[in-house]
């Protein structure tokens, strides 16, 4: 393992082990009078790095905190994190308006709904256009393929002009049935786990995120030692590749998804189905597979770091921004009234898997190398994404099963 010894100790180890110890060399076994601290759960796993006698020694900090730990001490990052979370909380409490809006169901409106739609239809039909002669030319809705701007404004007078009220910025938004609302907010995310479309989104989001988590958990283990010998700052900078990949994914997934959905909508006689977004997953699944291949084999066979970072890490960033966005949008499109609860359910699923993944990935790598665990995780991501084929053909059937469920009337 990589440790800083006095010259005489290094020389002794070199003689005992018959090896040249240079920065990055890791001595993973006890030798002669030199012993190393092991992990509490294993007698043969040497801790990297070795902890000092200082009771405040954190041993290993988060990778993203590398530069701050090197130049300002490890506590600096945690205080920065506290400040950022506090700022976010204050902004949410006082600067973010309430966005939950109850739109009355037609059953709640009763006869008023029919009257409203009839009046709106009549106004659309008499939307007029004056010619040079001053005679009004009347066109009914059936004669026009698209609504005119004036007709659209009649249907939605606040379209593009709406704004939150002062009450929506309040610290607390009154609710006529607060107890019922709280119970539903707790229950609905669990209920949604029984909905196949939400399950698809939850599993794709969870496993796609674990591909990026793999990088977070292994980058220091790989690049801080020979043959790379990166500093903490250099290891932290490798995250910029994933960051750039994330920007690429965010910039392309949405427009591409909208474009594909629109093309399929036109082919389907102007009828849009949520499943029309699913083909957008194809290029990002291929990018995900490429990225995992490069990272797994690059780590194992110590490829040039530029290949691993530029290709592998960037691909990880692209897919983690794209695949979760596509599948979660599919779920939201299918169950719009409970969009918030969908993301709660997805997040719970993601965090449970992420926690478990972080517990076994490192021991598995120590036992079998990088290829087996990373490629197994890649295979699982691919399997969940391939279920998109099933939902392409049967997604609407699943939605039919739940069309009368109360989640559509929330």
Characterise the protein shown here:
By secondary structure, this protein is mainly alpha-helical. Helix content is 62%, strand content 1%. It contains 14 helices and 2 strands, in the order αααααββααααααααα. The protein has helices spanning 7-17, 66-72, 74-95, 106-109, 111-125, 149-155, 178-191, 196-223, 232-237, 239-267, 281-300, 305-334, 339-368, 371-401; strands at 128-130, 136-138. Strands 1-2 form a two-stranded antiparallel sheet. Strand 1 and strand 2 form a beta hairpin. Helix 11 packs antiparallel against helix 12 (305-334) and helix 13 runs antiparallel to helix 14 (371-401). The termini are far apart.
Task: Provide a concise account of the structure shown.
The chain has 410 residues and is mainly alpha-helical. Helices cover 62% and strands 1% of the residues. It has helices spanning 7-17, 66-72, 74-95, 106-109, 111-125, 149-155, 178-191, 196-223, 232-237, 239-267, 281-300, 305-334, 339-368, 371-401; strands at 128-130, 136-138.
């Amino acid at each position: 393992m990589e440790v800083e010894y006095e010259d005489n100790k290094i020389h002794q180890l070199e003689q005992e082990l018959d090896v040249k110890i240079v920065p990055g060399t890791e001595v993973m076994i006890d030798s002669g009078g030199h012993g190393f601290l092991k992990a509490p759960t294993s007698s043969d796993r040497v801790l990297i790095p070795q902890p000092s006698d200082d009771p405040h020694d954190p041993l290993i900090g988060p990778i993203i905190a590398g530069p701050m730990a090197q130049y300002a001490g490890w506590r600096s990052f945690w205080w920065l994190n506290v400040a950022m979370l506090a700022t976010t909380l204050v902004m949410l409490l006082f600067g973010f308006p309430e966005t939950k809006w109850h739109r009355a169901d037609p059953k709640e409106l009763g006869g008023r709904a029919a009257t409203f739609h009839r009046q709106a239809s009549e106004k659309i039909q008499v939307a007029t256009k004056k010619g040079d002669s001053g005679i009004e030319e009347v066109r009914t809705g059936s004669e026009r393929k698209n609504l005119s701007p004036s007709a659209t404004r009649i249907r939605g007078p606040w379209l593009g002009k709406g704004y939150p009220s002062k009450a929506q910025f309040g610290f607390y938004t009154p609710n006529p049935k607060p107890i019922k609302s709280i119970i539903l907010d707790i229950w609905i995310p669990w209920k949604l786990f029984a909905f196949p479309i939400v399950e698809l989104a939850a599993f794709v989001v969870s496993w796609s995120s674990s591909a990026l988590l793999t990088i977070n958990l292994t980058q220091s283990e790989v690049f801080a030692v020979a043959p790379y010998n990166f500093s903490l700052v250099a290891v932290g900078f490798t995250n910029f590749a994933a960051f750039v990949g994330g920007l690429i994914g965010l910039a392309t997934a949405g427009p591409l998804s909208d474009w594909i959905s629109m093309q399929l909508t036109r082919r389907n006689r102007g009828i849009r189905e949520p499943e029309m977004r699913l083909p957008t997953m194809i290029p990002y699944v291929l990018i995900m597979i490429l990225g995992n291949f490069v990272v797994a084999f690059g780590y194992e066979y110590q490829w040039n770091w530029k290949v691993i970072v530029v290709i592998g890490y960037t691909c990880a960033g692209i897919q983690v921004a794209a695949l979760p966005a596509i599948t979660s949008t599919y779920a939201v499109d299918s169950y719009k009234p409970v969009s918030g609860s969908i993301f709660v359910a997805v997040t719970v699923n993601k965090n449970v898997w992420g926690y478990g993944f972080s517990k076994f990935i490192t021991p598995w790598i120590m036992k079998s190398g990088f290829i087996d665990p990373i490629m197994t995780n890649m295979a699982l991501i691919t399997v969940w994404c391939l279920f998109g084929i099933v939902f392409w053909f049967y997604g609407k059937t699943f939605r039919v099963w739940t069309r009368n469920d109360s989640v559509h009337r929330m």
